[in-house]
Structure formats: structure tokens, C-alpha cells
């Protein structure tokens, strides 16, 4: 019996080592990311800002109004709100604003369907780049000006820096930290090493003709950003990242919203892992596509909170004066070190310490999601939003 326990422990340890080694590599690399500057450029690109709005009456009018405040020539950008299942009075208010409203209605709504409908609606307009924002996103006033400067290198895809808009509960603080760790590891660290940055669901700019073509192949119910990223990387296109271009994103405030959101993310990762991971590894070898290999590895990584929770549990339960017991402790220490490296200094405060008390409950919710993934990616899981005060606009990195 002991031999089976030993085999099990070594398998678990190997999984943890794989995850921690990947995270630590890019956490260290992210430290060498150099700050970029985006001066005002005379040549003005033309942008289409798409904001899919599904059942978001409480927040979309505020988001649209704030987005219109761009310090950028008004004739050089359009804000396009895609109204899906909004109330009539909300649509009427939106139509009174200087933006384009595209009303849609689907039996099963998805982000891809909404955006494709809007593309058809504005097909007569000429744009250089498409920008995708979520219904709760607030962009800094110089967002387009910075984008215009950054995109003078004619990149096909550029991901901006998404960060927390609100930090008013323990879960929203942890969600904000998680977002910044992702930015450090999957974007800053990747860019330093010459690997494509990971896309997020919003805050990205894509060259318009390419955007129209890539959207034709998007059929994701959940994981819109993951499918788009895989399709882009499979074409050997580099995804650039600009840490100094800011997009503020509402973070989850309640445990039930946290669990539902993570269930959607985990389901999407599991779906695309089955569909693309092995294919990606083989394709990356035969086509020398290092970005595709890296993305395939990302698809098989454990959720970070699950990885941390497992490390702690195995340290506590199997900590013995043995070789394996000692290695479990070492791998936990390395993992915590990598997470600290990837966490911005602004989070080193007493509010974060209080928020960390929610980690065990967060781990439990994530763990329970493993038993709820069946069929989760067959129907869009909506995350409710509210108008949150932008608490980080003055002190962001």
C-alpha cells in the first residue's frame, strides 16, 4: 500500500513543480520589464471601440459616458455599444449620446455574436484598429492617445494593462491582486522573453481588417479571449503588451460572484485544453511556433489558487523528516516567493493582510467548481456588474 501512496505523492509533487517552475520563470523575467513612454503623435489612427452590453443597464450608461471623454479627436473614434437584452429606457438614453447603438437579440447570447453583429452594422466605416472593452471598464482619458502612439509600430494586436477599479471587499482586493499577478507573469514576463503576451477579455486593440477576419472564426460561448488568443498565436502573430495604457475593471465583491466567474474561466480553460493543448504542442514543434507551445502549456496549468492550496495542504499533511516532505516545503516557499515578486508593492498593506483571510474560502470555492464544470461552457454565465467608484485612478502603476 505504501508504494501506491508514494507514487501518488510523487505525481502530485511533479505537477506542483511544473506549475511553480513556469510561474517562477516569468515572475523573475517580469522584473526586467522597462517602462515605456507614449508621446503625442501627429498621425491619428481611427478607432472603433466595441462595448458589448448584456443585461447591464445599471452600468452601461456610465461606462459609455466615461468612454466618450477621451482626450482624442472626436472624428477619429467611434464608441459602439452593443445593446443585448437592455431595457428600452436604457437604449433610449444611449441613443441620445454621441455614439453608435447596435441592438441585438439572441436565443443564446455570446460576446462573439454581439461583436460580429456590430461589425456588420458599421461595415461602411473605415477604422484602423478595433478596441474591445467590457461593460464595466473605465479607460483613462489618454487611453486612445497612448494607443495611437504605441501602435505606430503597426502591430496587429496590443493588450493594454487592465487593473482593479474597486477594492472595497476582501474578495475584490484578492481579485485585483490576481489580475496584477497575471499582468506580471503572463504579460510583462512574456514580453521580456520575447513571447506573446496573454490576451484578456477586454482592453485590447486589434488591426481592423485582421479583427474582422479573426472574428469570423470566433464561436466561443465562454472563453472568448482564450479562443481569440489561440487563433492569433496559431498564425504566428505576436501579441504586444503596454503596461502603461490603463483600463480599470470592476472586481468581484461577493463570494458567489467569485465562484461563478471562476467556474466560467475554469470551464473555458478545460474546454480549450481538450481542444487545443495536444494539437498546439504538436503544431508548435512542426512549425517552430514557440508562442503556441507556451499557450499550450498555459492551458494545462492548474488555477493558481488551487496550486497554492494544494501545496499548503500537502506540506501540512505529509510534512515528515523525509526527502519528499522537505521538497514539498521547498516548492511552497518558491511559489510564495514568485507570487510576492509578481505582486505590486501597492498591495503590501494591512488591507491585503485582512483580505488574505478569504484565501481558504476562495480555495474551497475553486475546488468545488471542479465538480460543477460539466456543461458549464454550453451556456453563457453572466457576471453581474455595478457602477463602482474608481478607487485606483490616482495611485495606479
Major sheet: size, sense and barrel closure? 8 strands, mixed
CATH architecture annotation name: Alpha-Beta Complex
How many domains? The number is: 1
The structure class reads alpha/beta
What are the low-pLDDT stretches, counting only 5+ consecutive residues below 50? 393-397
Overview of the structural elements:
It is a single chain. By secondary structure, this protein is of the alpha/beta class. The chain has one domain: Spore Coat Polysaccharide Biosynthesis Protein SpsA, Chain A (Alpha-Beta Complex), CATH 3.90.550.10. The protein contains 14 helices and 8 strands. The protein has an 8-stranded mixed beta sheet with strand order 3-2-1-4-7-6-8-5, with helices on both faces. The N and C termini lie far apart (53 Å). Residues 393-397 have low confidence and may be disordered.
